[in-house]
Amino acid sequence: MRRYFKRTIAVLAIALMYSTLIGGGVLAENESENDFNNGVNVEETDRNEDVPEGEPGTVSDETVSEELETNVEEARSALAGAVSPQSDECPVKLNSGIESGSTYHNVRQEVSDFTLSTQLQSNNKWVDKNHVFHYTINLSKNGKGVNLSLPYQIVNGDTVKSEGVLEFENGIGSISLPTGCAMKSSKMPTGLSYIITHRPDSNFTWQKDTMEGTTDLSGSTVQFIAGQIYNPLKYSLDTEIIVKMDGRNFKAGDSFTYAIVAENEDEYPPFNMFPLPSGDSDTIAYYENSARIKPSSGTTATLSLKENIQSYPCMVGNSCKRVYKTSAERRFWEEVACVDCGYSVQNRNVNIAPEIIFAHPGTYNYIVFQTAMESSDYDSIQQDSAQYKVTVTVSANGSNLTPSLTSVKRSTDGCKTWIDHPDKSKLTFTNVKIDGVVKGDIDKDGKVNMTDVIACLNHVAKKKILTGEALAAADVDGNGVSMTDVIKILNFVSKKTSTL
Asked: What is the mean pLDDT of residues 367-376?
């Protein structure tokens, strides 16, 4: 009888290994033996249940288990030369780290959909689309954290914003979600316990700090609900850009454009998110993150950023009574806040100056600099390369916010050094007309050659500083002398480019 059980065990062991190979339960090349023995879905083999323990001719459970393990190892050795078929059915790698005394484990892992998002309640006033919410996800099996590489997408509605793989180490992973976006994965293993916690954020009230559950085949949808504490406000920078020209008067065709950009563009609200229509006229125009002026006479022009209340035709919601100055603003609200009550056009006294919409208290820096100039004598104009840092402090009183322009600093070395600018109300840029300047001809010998390249390079390296006409000639691109100008002159001299 014992010999019969040995033969039976050997046959069962070989059959077990063969069915594992054919059925796809074989170890992949990048899985360890421990991964195989610690698989998540556990199926125990049937033991000698037909013969009561202790009766003549029977073999104990312990004996069967020992001999089965011995013969399994022999069968594995015999089949070591077999090629394991690879399967793409489940690319998710999972190692639970859970010990088990079971004889056989099925390594095929069932997966399902998983979604994590934030619903932002806006007080029916504004949705802070620039805010980012941060979450920590804890995944475990039987109380132990799992190691997992989880493919995911960040989506806004049906639009995929980005894709990636979220790594869980000892069960811990983290994800960041912009307002209106959700994390989605179709490869979340089933049977895992999850605990999801949002990072502390005092700008919102939360219905729940933590969400818990277990993944299953029906899918898991987790949504945190955050209520906005503060009433967002619209603010125009309380300052002006002063444009000056030395050496000649402004004339028709002159155009100056200035960038006004958030120092931290990922977290700060943008300047003039919803610009009014401007076209290509000669009047002052404001765009998102920039403003333009086209002076045609005199030597000084003012590009104001201050609040300017005027009667303006607006779109007014039929029931919500919200006032929209632009179609872009109305579409934004309808998309993010799911509000569409129709509208009528009515004249309202509104601020037509560019605005920044602040939704939270804090300190916000914006950098202002001349980014473009157009003129018929462009080559002979030395543009002002100064930059200004404008600081806005937003304070809170209950749910209300109050902004103020608290400081202005100026830099002339590419933002390396900032010096306090005493007059916060004026950001002055002076462009200089220099007669006889030929771009690239720094030494004024009538030729653009390697001597000019070296002179420009020495200025950038601060070995020999250029001034006056030489400085204007070195500023090829009109954005201040830098390595870009050195390369432009060098490419011209080496005939890689035909123009400067």
From this structure: 94
